[in-house]
Amino acid sequence: MRKPLIPVSEAIARIAEAMRVMPKEEVSLSDASGRILADDAIAILTNPPQDQSAMDGYAARGEDITDLPCVLHLKGESAAGHPWPDPIAPGTCVRISTGANIPDGADRIVILENTRSDHSSEQIEILEAPSQDQFIRRKGQDFHSGDVLIKNGTRLNGRQMGLLAAAGHHRMMVRRKPVVAILSTGSELVEPGTNPSAAQIISSNSIMIAEMVAAMGATAMPLPPIPDNENALLDAIAGLTHVDLLVMTGGASVGKHDLVAGMMKDHDGLDFWRIAMRPGKPMIFGHIAIGSAPSEAATTPLLGLPGNPVSSGVCTLIFVRAAIRAMLGLSPVPVTRKAILTTDLPANDQREEYMRGMIQYDAATGLDHFTPLLSQDSGKMKDFALAEALMIRPAHATALGGGSIVDIIYLNPGD
Ligand code: AMP
Ligand code: MG
Questions:
Q1: 25, 172 in Cβ contact below 8 A?
Q2: Which ligand has its closest atom nearest to the C-alpha of 227?
Q3: pLDDT tens, 122-169?
Q4: Is ligand 1 within 6 A of the CB of residue 312?
Q5: Together in a domain, 32 and 102
Q6: Which residue out of 187, 189, 260 has the highest number of ligand 1 atoms within 8 Å of its CB and is therefore the one to mutate?
Q7: Strands, E, within 155-274: which ranges?
């Protein structure tokens, strides 16, 4: 009897468990966008570095401005980057700008709007007094040196890079990006940019998977497609170096020309094969030896995806993602949201289904509505390319009516 199909969640867990977490490397902060912090980021500096004014106005002593209106003598200016060096003497004030240090002795910022003066005059009439902390940014009110600013394992974005720069960082420890080699197999495949004969098709999987894995935080290494020929396959694998994960497409099924499955079955590097999933059932996970040295051990993880572009795309979003995230020290589990199903669906069989569909925001409930595409034919690349979400229909799910709450994965998270 055939081995039972592996549940998707088990396959994700087994793949993640088998991955090696990438070592740390130091990069310039300006190159750290999208990289995963490998240590907690600790503030080197304090912000603000001193008590500073939050507004343009005058720095004064509270005890001088209790009886209003009153007049203070203007002694000079504290500008951002050019602080006033002297303490504020009784009955005096200095002009102050936003971000300028508050001179010693001053404990009030009177905003410009609450004063009156002639242009040339050194007499400033104070019309309204602020409370003690109004318009003042206290030293360290944002963060102090030594504070943990961003946790280890965070994927850095522009806001966080700005914070790290403000805190005195210009180089960061991040996880090295895993290198993902992508190898399509199929004698019918030609590279994008070539004119296929009637018996050929353009290999579109590599460009799709390369883009997806780059967005997940890996370095994509797309390779030219190879024909369904064992020597070509072994040569391509022998030519690889510095690969953290090999993703192959095509040849994963049980046909006579399905080389990847054949190679892995004959070999003790096979971890598992065939997933209870639609699309994506024939996927293979294992380890192989890469490079030409005979001593090479079978230590490079390999995901053998079905060649069908929709299947290989869905498997990339679920399993290649799980592998990459595990290598980056992140959770491999897909991020799902709730949505309201708009149509009826029949009961499901033993394969967890990833249905392509469209989403529409419903303002009344604050939830997205999910409408599956009429055809779930995994040969339809155009539908997959234009779909907005994948709905996960669990194995053995009972029939669902329109209005049911379902789990979806957004396909365009950046939109
Ligand atoms: P296979 O998994 O090798 O049986 O391939 C399944 C289907 O996907 C066949 O119709 C192949 O022609 C097609 N296919 C395989 N590899 C690719 C690829 N790299 N790009 C586009 N289509 C492919
Ligand atoms: Mg094939």
A1: no
A2: 2
A3: 999 999 999 999 999 999 999 999 999 999 999 999 999 999 999 999
A4: no
A5: no
A6: 189
A7: 171-175, 179-184, 189-190, 201-202, 219-222, 245-249, 270-273
For residue 317, the CA-to-ligand 1 centroid distance in Å is 17
Asked if the model's pLDDT at residue 414 lies above 70, the reply is: no
The domain in which residue 351 lies consists of 337-410
Confidence of residue 294 (pLDDT cuts 50, 70, 90): low
Domain presence at residue 332? no
Distance (Å, whole) CA 323 – CA 287: 13
Last residue of a domain, one of 309, 327, 345: 327
DSSP 8-state symbol, 194: S
The Å distance, Cα 308 to ligand 2 centre, comes to 9
**Residues 82 and 205 grouped into a single domain:** no
Does residue 53 line the site of ligand 1, with CB under 6 A?
A: no
Q: Where are the beta strands (DSSP E) in 223-336?
A: 245-249, 270-273, 277-278, 284-288, 300-305
Burial of 352 per CB tally in 10 Å (0-12, 13-18, 19+):
buried
**211 in a structural domain:** yes
Q: How far is the CA of 202 from the centre of ligand 1 (A)?
A: 10
Both 268 and 284 in a single domain? yes
Is residue 283, in this structure, part of any structural domain at all? yes
Q: Is there a domain that residue 265 lies in? A: yes
Amino acid at the residue 56? D
User: Looking at beta carbons, which pairs linking 261-267 to residues 24 or more positions away fall under 8 Å?
Assistant: 261/304, 262/230, 263/230, 263/233, 263/234, 263/288, 264/288, 264/302, 264/304, 267/298
Q: Are residue 209 and residue 295 in the same domain, yes or no? A: yes
Statement to judge: residues 108 and 246 lie in one domain = no
From ligand 1's centre to the CA of 46, what distance in Å?
57
Q: What is the CATH number of the domain that holds 122?
A: 2.170.190.11
| Number of domains present in the structure of the chain | 4
CATH of the domain at 362: 2.40.340.10
Q: List, as ranges, residues with CB under 5 A of the ion ligand 2.
A: 186, 250-251, 307
Percentage of the chain beyond pLDDT 90 is 89
